[in-house]
C-alpha cells in the first residue's frame, strides 16, 4: 500500500500472531467501502511492466490481509479471523518474455517463490511428512495458516486459451490439482 516501503521483512511472533510483515502499512476499516478503497490503492500501487509475453505483467505477488474482529458488548469476549486475498504473479518462461536486467531478476524471484509454494503443496499432500518447507520463502511463511492450518482456502487459477501458452496452462492446471488435493 506504500510503494516507498521496499523489501519488507517477514518476522515471527511465537505464541501470538505467527508470521507477519514488519513495518507493513495498516488501516483500520469499518465498512466495505473503506476496504474497497484500500484495494483500489493497492492495485494502483502495484508494480507492473510490459514483457514480450504480457503487456501488463505483474512483477510481484500481492497479498491483502484482513483481520476481522468481533467483540461482544455483553461479555467483552473477542473473536478474530484472518482473511487473505492473494494475487500471485504468474510463472514466466524467460525466453518467452525476453526479460533482461531488472525484469529478469523479478522473473527469477517470482519463479523461485512459486517453486517453493509448489514444494510446500507437494509436501502437504505426501503422507508421513514431518517437515513442511514453509520457511523457504516469504510467501509460504505468510500463507502457512492458509495452506496447512485450520482454514478454508479457495484457489482461482487463470489459464490461457492460446496454444503458445499451452505449457504454462498445463503447469497451472497441475498446480491447481495439487493444491486441491490438500486435506
> What share of the residues does DSSP label as strand, in percent?
15-25%
The largest sheet has its strands arranged as: 1-2
Discrete helix count:
6
| Protein structure class | alpha+beta
Mean pLDDT level: 83
- Number of beta-strand segments: 6
Poorly predicted residue ranges: none
Helical fraction: 25-40%
Rg (C-alpha, Å)? 18 Å
- Report the sheet with the most strands, covering strand number, pairing sense and barrel closure: 2 strands, antiparallel
Distance between the termini: 33 Å
Globally, the shape reads: globular
Order of helices and strands: EEHEEEEHHHHH
Would you write up a description of this structure?
With 183 residues, this protein is α+β, with helices and mostly antiparallel strands. It contains 6 helices and 6 strands; from the N terminus they run E-E-H-E-E-E-E-H-H-H-H-H. Strands 1-2 form a two-stranded antiparallel sheet. The protein has a two-stranded antiparallel sheet with strand order 3-4. A two-stranded antiparallel sheet has the order 5-6. The two termini are 33 Å apart. The model has no long low-confidence stretch (mean pLDDT 83).
Amino acid at each position: 500500500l506504500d510503494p516507498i516501503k521496499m523489501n519488507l521483512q517477514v518476522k515471527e511472533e511465537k505464541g501470538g500472531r505467527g508470521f507477519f510483515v514488519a513495518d507493513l502499512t495498516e488501516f483500520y476499516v469499518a465498512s466495505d467501502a473503506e476496504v474497497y478503497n484500500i484495494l483500489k490503492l493497492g492495485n494502483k500501487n502495484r508494480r507492473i511492466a510490459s514483457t514480450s509475453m504480457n503487456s501488463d505483467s505483474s512483477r510481484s505477488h500481492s497479498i491483502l490481509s484482513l483481520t476481522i474482529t468481533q467483540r461482544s458488548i455483553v461479555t467483552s469476549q473477542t473473536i478474530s479471523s484472518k482473511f487473505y486475498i492473494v494475487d500471485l504473479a504468474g510463472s514466466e518462461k524467460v525466453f518467452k518474455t525476453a526479460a533482461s536486467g531488472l525484469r529478469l531478476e523479478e522473473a527469477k524471484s517470482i519463479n523461485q517463490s512459486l517453486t517453493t509454494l509448489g514444494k510446500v503443496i507437494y509436501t502437504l499432500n505426501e503422507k508421513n511428512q514431518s517437515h513442511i518447507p514453509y520457511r523457504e520463502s516469504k510467501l509460504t511463511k505468510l500463507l502457512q495458516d492458509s495452506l496447512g492450518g485450520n482454514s478454508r482456502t479457495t484457489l482461482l487459477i487463470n489459464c490461457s486459451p492460446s496454444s503458445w501458452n499451452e505449457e504454462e496452462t498445463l503447469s497451472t492446471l497441475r498446480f491447481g490439482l495439487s493444491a486441491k488435493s490438500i486435506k
